[in-house]
Amino acid sequence: MVRMLVVDDEIYALKGITQGIDWSDLPIEDILEAEDVTEAKRLLEEQNVDLVISDIEMPGLNGLELLRWIRDHRPHTLTVFLTGHARFDYAQEALHNGCFDYVLKPVDHDALKVIVERAIAEIGMRKERQKIEETVDNNRKQWTSQLPILVERFWQDVLAGRVRLSPDRLNRQLEYYDMPLTADSRILPILLSIEQWNVELDARDESIMEYALRKAAAEIILGEWPGMALQDRNELNMALLYLREGAVVNRADLLKRCGEYVRACNDYFHCRVSCYVGEAVGINELVDAFERLQQLERSNVSAPQTVLDSLASGQGTANPTGISLPSFIDWGMLLDNGGYEELCARIQETLNNWQAESASRESLELFQYGILHMLYQAAYRKGCSIYDVFTVNELTDAQAIRSTQQLAAWAGKMVSKMGLALAERQRDASAVIAKVQSYILDNLHMELTRDNIANSVYRNPAYLSRLFRKETGFSLSDYIAQLRIERAKRFLVDTNDKVSNIAESVGYVHFSYFAKLFKKMTSLSPQEYRKKNQTLH
């Protein structure tokens, strides 16, 4: 729908156009009126007007001045002028300044309506063209905003070994992603190894902080050099420095920037980071180059927060000899006996010595496996599941063996957690057993089953049976039988009740079973025991 404005200083001419012509068959939603240019400008500023029909000759500001104003302030508005034969030069100037068309006075209403109809069609086409242009512009902006993500995915595919392209296809891909590279360009990879966070972070916060570290790497390490900081599909962080044909990077400057980045991570991002600087390789060689950096990272267990140059000889190697493992059996006994604090001190002392001896990656892995085996054995001996104490992530923490300090922190945390859990479990077990014993004493005259005893303390029946035997040395059934016979013995001595009544009062419905069990446990029948021990007359 179109909004139209008619401007004429002659009121009859104005009304003749707005009211004397039947506009109902055209898509016009509103017709505004103005008697001079000043009022027309006000309406144009207040409302979106698509079409202006204006007289050229008016007192004060004329139609040509209105046209120039519309061209500067409302360029999408079309203008149709009304002019007399005597001033045809006005119409020519109006057309020169962008007027859509003109009508000679006196106005032929039918001719004016035809011109308005053409103007409305032009307005429709312009709006459609504008809509298309806006769509294209929005798509272009969206593509531009998404381009860094698409480039990161391209490198993730390269590092995952999914991209092995011919030079021609690789060139097309690089051009498509607007990357300043060709198939002959070289890439210098830098592995950003996050060794330890100095603050507690949940998974979401850690992901946010890693993103911040990559942004910092782009600013500090890459700086004005072309390249990108990204995370691969295995969540390893890196920076890729782009080197076009013949380009050479100042390696000393690069290593210096990496050192500044390591210090910035410690000072501002609360984490310890090392940089492993690779060699410049072709795009299709990047997977192997990055694997070499990971091997360099794995071998570095004694030099945290450092910059390692893969081209420097002897860097990142560790001495695999001269390391002796502790006795994890002795350590397990210490843990069983509640000495987890002493055990933590021994772990710290051992790994401090290992750091001085440049322990190998394999040695740290063996130590981690030994600690895990000790924890599993301790849980088994105490009759509990390891997963009642630890999460799967805690048990499978691959970051723990990145350095002796991280391994010491991980092992100390795990041992302390297990020690506290076992101590708490012992207290809980004693409390549960006391409640079970009290329940049994209060209900000896009732039928006692393993299930209703377990329900009284909200425990699994099988688990409770094992726990009761472990804590008291008796099975539930033996313990109940012993209490019942002891109570029966007391009733036999202290009362003259019939033996069958006594049997029933201690929970035995079948007298024959009671008599048989009594004799088995006392070597006397109930009657013989009463006769031998009763003093009542």
TrEMBL record:
Q: Which residues carry this modification: 4-aspartylphosphate?
A: 55
**InterPro entries named among the record's database cross-references:** CheY-like_superfamily (IPR011006), Homeodomain-like_sf (IPR009057), HptR (IPR051552), HTH_AraC (IPR018060), HTH_AraC-typ_CS (IPR018062), Sig_transdc_resp-reg_receiver (IPR001789), Tscrpt_reg_AraC-type_HTH (IPR020449)
- PROSITE patterns assigned: HTH_ARAC_FAMILY_1, HTH_ARAC_FAMILY_2, RESPONSE_REGULATORY
The record's section on Pfam families has: HTH_18, Response_reg
Q: What's one GO-annotated cellular component?
A: cytoplasm
**Residue stretches making up the HTH araC/xylS-type domain:** 434-532
Please give the superkingdom of this protein's source.
Bacteria
Statement: the UniProt record of this protein carries the keyword DNA-binding = yes
The signal peptide, as residue positions, is none
Q: Where in the cell is it found?
A: Cytoplasm
Limits of the Response regulatory domain? 3-120
Q: Which UniProt keywords apply?
A: Cytoplasm, DNA-binding, Phosphoprotein, Transcription, Transcription regulation, Two-component regulatory system
An example Gene Ontology molecular-function term: DNA-binding transcription factor activity
What protein am I looking at? Response regulator
